[in-house]
Amino acid sequence: PRQAGGLKKAARDRLAAMLPEIEKRLEDVLKYGDLMHASAQVIKPLLQQARMLAGQYDAGVTNPPYVGGRNGMPPYLKEYVSEHFSAGKADLFAAFIQQCCHMAARYGRIGMVTKHNWMFTSTYAEFREWLLSSVSIQSVAHLGPGVFEFLGGEVVQVVAFSLQKCEVNQHTPKFIRATDGTTDEKRNALLT
């Protein structure tokens, strides 16, 4: 699969290779102390986060964050997303999907619940092209409005999907359209 955007594999591998030595030095500072002891306490959680981001995962399941499109992003975030996630720059959730795909190990699976607009609007055309060339779609359940009862009404229209990080192959994805009906009817459509 294509590795466009996100933390590139080579950079991620270099970071993963350096982390054990950095963590050892940090532990020495914390253990033996010096003038940098207070700073080391701040750095430790950042190293733990770096280890997570440098890793490759067999599964990722999430409901990614939203900011209301590019207009909802502060300038620094808009610039970062454009530079590192060009296909997913239309909204933070699309960039998040890209990063989860990058973090998936070979044959890893990704499952998400997102807004449904990435499937239809021209704003996400580049993202759809990237997705179709980067991962294998396993299933898509277009659930429309009313899935999250606690939100009420037509507030959020959603799609739940699963992807696999492998070459696009002979697998036939399963597509379910359950945009009409009650929450219970939609749940039953998914279970059949």
Termini gap: 32 Å
Query: How many DSSP helices?
Result: 6
Which value, in Å, is the CA radius of gyration?
20 Å
The helix/strand series, from N terminus to C terminus, equals HHEHHEHEEEH
Strand content: 15-25%
Strand order of the largest sheet: 1-2-4-3-5
The stretches of 5 or more residues where confidence is low (pLDDT under 50) are 1-6
User: What would the average pLDDT be, to the nearest integer?
Assistant: 81
The major sheet is characterized as: 5 strands, mixed
At a glance:
With 192 residues, the chain is an alpha/beta fold. It is built from 6 helices and 5 strands, in the order H-H-E-H-H-E-H-E-E-E-H. The protein has a 5-stranded mixed sheet with strand order 1-2-4-3-5, sandwiched between helices.
Question: Characteristics of this structure?
Answer:
192 residues, alpha/beta, 20% strand, elongated
